[in-house]
Amino acid sequence: MEKININDLIVEYMVYKVRNDYDPIITTKEFTKFLNFFEEKIEVEKETDNIVEVFKSFYDTKNKKDWLTPKWIDGKKEYYSDPHMYLKNDGKDYYLEANYNLNINDLCRISTYNMFNEDVTGIRILIGDFLANQRKRSIKESFAPDASEWMVGCSAAANIIDEIWKSHINDDINNQKWPKQCQDINKYLFDVDLAQIIGTKSIKEELCRAFDVFSKRIATLYHTDKNLKISSDSVNYLAYSNYRLLIEGYKELIEKAYDVDKKELELDFSKLTYREIYEEDKNYYFDSESYIMNNVKPIENEKAKTLVHNMYKRKN
Fold it and tell me: What is the DSSP-derived secondary structure letter of residue 141?
């Protein structure tokens, strides 16, 4: 490959950072260092060496072309800018910050090279080499969520725990090891741990530990980002990165409920909604959407609040 356009390289660099759990931010200082490293191997096509001007031009170009979203107004189709990254200035430096619009379409709009040839592999290897020693994202334990943020975190965690519980007992129901009328987690895990009575595996302690971890992680993320999204769908790059942060150390447990063959999870904290997406029946026609089910409910629903109460009651 002879050269790559600077705007395409910015997209590749940001997408790589987000998909590999680095901070979704590119400062001018960082990108200058990266360019010095990258241009030793591949020429970069750009109009200026001033990275501030490069970022401004990138942002302006994308807003006028690739980040336009159609909207019908009075029967007329109009377009408005819906950025996939923000250009910000903290008083010391300009930087680009990815948001929840960043997705596969950003890569598909790259024009410098064919996305299916070996060029893209070489570019991503170089990006990975440059970032190899950089610290990845983590949930900062030093932040202290307030009471309302804690309640949101606990309620979101409770919804997830309830779904894991239902998936767990459904396996036993299908194997005729669990009475199908006994599915309420508050009644059959906390009022009485039915598993211990009927001689099946109890996951009460495992779920309680996961609740404590998930609620703290979610509340902390929400404290720093009121538009927080968490999704088990890898198409949503930043939301999926948040999901990986959330489930670290609990991947096997959470995949009882959410994986590619079961349900997708989507938490939208700008709307405080919990959403599940799943197929009602695996025997469907591929040209039909009627079997794709959406279950949307408030994060702070009554069942979740009761479960939160029971979780904390167990500690007293």
Answer: T
Asked if residue 152 lies in contact with residue 299, where contact means CB atoms within 8 angstroms, the answer is yes
Dihedral (Cα; 304, 306, 312, 316), 10-degree rounding: -170
Pairing of strands 85-89, 43-45: unpaired
CB 153 within 8 A of CB 218: yes
pLDDT digits (tens, 9 = 90+) for 188-237: 999 999 999 999 989 999 999 999 999 999 999 999 999 999 999 999 99
Q: Are 108 and 115 in contact (CB under 8 A)?
A: yes
Residue 14 host element (H or E)? helix 6-19
Of residues 175 and 60, more confidently modeled:
60
Read off the amino acid at residue 184: D
**Please, are residues 200 and 176 in contact by the beta-carbon 8 Å criterion?**
no
Smallest CA-to-CA distance from 59 within 107, 19, 104, 7 is with 7
Q: What's the pLDDT at 290?
A: 46
Signed CA dihedral, 289, 290, 293, 297: sign only: positive
Q: Tokens for 206, please give them.
A: 């495992």
Exposure on the CB side of residue 308, measured as CA atoms within 13 A: 20
